[in-house]
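Entry:
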Amino acid sequence: MKLHTYFRSSASYRVRIALLLKGLPYESLPVHLVRGEQKQPAYASHVGDALVPSLITDDGHWLTQSMAIIEYLDETHAQTPLLPSDALGRAHVRALAQMVACEIHPLNNLRVLKYLVKDLAVSDEAKTGWYAHWVRSGLEAFERQLALLDAERKADGLPESLYCWGDTPTLAECCLIPQIFNAQRFNVNLDGLPRLMAVVERCNALPAFAAAHPSACPDAE
């Protein structure tokens, strides 16, 4: 498989984590977003939204959107499942993942930040404030949801989760870890998020997460 990626892209980072957790070999094909390489015909002609990541499967199909790519990998490669085996668990994990991918990330990706500055003439200070507000409020909601899920597990007689849900990383961690990386880049306050940060610490100790980190990418700057 071949992954079109950019080292700082949260969505690309998600897919790298999934591939590495599953032990799946892939070729990294960097696409430099800041230089606009995603808009060049050689790439954009294959991808409707001209974004990264995109994955070329072993049989040559192009897949887009990180969440769809990860679920494809989970459905086609049974090792190290990223979604629980039960419907309730899958719903909880998908909800956590979507809190990041659908609620936090869209407000703070590169396209939005560039539009704020270039088209709306927002100052760098205001842009940073925008970023911090939406990331912090979203992570606070994530923390509250982890607390609710812990209480649910306790009521159902299940052991306390080591990760977001259960004792192994899931789709939720694939989304959470890149968001925390970006939050730290922008110096977002991460105090008062004990459950969330405990999950981050456990993930960062795993080889797959270390290998997926932007600093480990061939296009890292």
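Residues 55 and 210 are 21 Å apart (CA to CA).
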